[in-house]
Write a structure and sequence with these properties.
Number of helices: 8
CATH architecture of the largest domain: 3-Layer(aba) Sandwich
Distance between the termini: 62 Å
Helix content: 25-40%
Structural class: alpha+beta
Radius of gyration: 21 Å
CATH class of the largest domain: Alpha Beta
Number of domains: 2
Largest sheet: 13 strands, mixed
Bound molecules: coenzyme A
Shape: globular
Length: 300
């Protein structure tokens, strides 16, 4: 007897369990981020996993169908990122479920994240407030010797491990929270340039392999001109290859510089926060230092 299969098949919804992200093979995490079109390599997952904590959603046979992470700094702040649910699960409540598990672990902390368009509604429903747009600028870098080359206020030098404490202090003044362990880990994976006046570090920019090429960030400086001056040598190093910078700057010399060097705006995400706003988002804040580029959308 020949059975003709029907044209459709109803699959029951299945149950999921929560797991620690720590024990999961990197290639399974990589497959999850590929399923939503993210550029992360297995190495990029390894870096974020070393930098924070998180959960995965697993189905009955151990497939990874979702993830959510947090990156704690000090005792009262964390960023949230790598929030993904597999396309076949989306809009069924798995994102909410994962975020609520994260919330249980960050009680008492102010939170910040960078929300994709797909995630905005989820975060709004969890009480996050919109702060600022992030411009994801990327492309094939073109070294531009003329732009921003004049009037550099100091010496540009390659950073070494001895500059880490000064970079941590500048980052903390700009970001509003001290991220010592993260900056130290970023140094280990990055090339860095700093703007020095004498022996004092006044601005810095790191650049590391990420996704399709390299990412420049964080970039911390007092002025657009200083930020351009410390990003320029990275652009020269990476000229002709894929480079990315995530920035809150929507106009001014730094934003114009990014399009001159071949990194137009590719996409935007929205920085959102839950709890206290950080000083760099408060108009007239005390600091003169600004985070010109994020470490990454995930890390802030
Ligand atoms: C963003 C993402 C994690 C959301 O996960 P999810 O499993 O779909 O989330 P949920 O099902 O829990 O939905 C949460 C809320 O968003 C709403 N929602 C989700 N997708 C929606 C859609 N496409 N259109 C309208 N509303 C949507 C849900 O109705 C729910 O709203 P409610 O709380 O008011 O009921 C998922 O879409 C995803 O992985 N996208 C790709 C990767 C990404 O952008 N990650 C975010 C990084 S910041």
């Amino acid at each position: 007897m020949e059975l003709k299969p029907s044209g459709s098949l109803k699959i029951d919804t299945f149950s999921m369990r929560i797991g620690d992200i720590e024990g999961v093979e990197l290639d399974r995490l990589h497959a999850l981020s590929l399923s939503v079109g993210w550029p992360h390599r297995a190495e990029d997952w390894q870096f974020v996993r070393q930098s924070g904590q998180g959960f995965v959603a697993l189905d009955e046979i151990g497939r990874v169908l979702g993830s959510a992470m947090w990156f704690a700094h000090g005792t009262d702040f964390a960023t949230v990122g790598m929030v993904i649910t597999s396309p076949r699960l989306q809009t069924l409540g798995a994102g909410q479920w994962l975020m609520k598990r994260v919330f249980e672990n960050v009680v008492g902390r102010d939170l910040r994240l960078n929300a994709t368009r797909a995630a905005r509604r989820l975060y709004l429903s969890l009480g996050f407030q919109p702060e600022k747009t992030v411009f994801q600028c990327q492309g094939i870098a073109r070294a531009q010797t003329s732009v921003g080359a004049a009037g550099i206020r100091g010496d540009i030098r390659r950073l070494s491990p001895s500059d880490i404490p000064a970079a941590i202090a500048l980052d903390a003044a700009a970001f509003g929270v001290r991220r010592a362990a993260l900056i130290e880990r970023l140094f280990a994976h990055s090339a860095g340039y700093g703007l020095f006046k004498g022996d004092t570090l006044n601005a810095f920019a790191l650049c590391r392999p990420f996704g399709r090429g390299h990412v420049v960030g964080p970039v911390v400086a007092e002025t657009d001109a200083d930020a351009v001056a410390i990003v320029r040598p990275h652009v020269a190093d990476r000229s002709g290859s894929f480079l990315r910078i995530d920035t809150h700057m929507d106009n001014g010399e730094f934003a114009a510089f990014l399009s001159h060097i071949g990194l137009p705006v590719y996409d935007t995400v929205l920085t959102m926060s839950l709890g206290r706003r950080l000083p760099d988002f408060v108009i007239g804040g005390a600091t003169t230092l600004t985070t010109y580029a994020l470490a990454s959308q995930t890390l802030g």
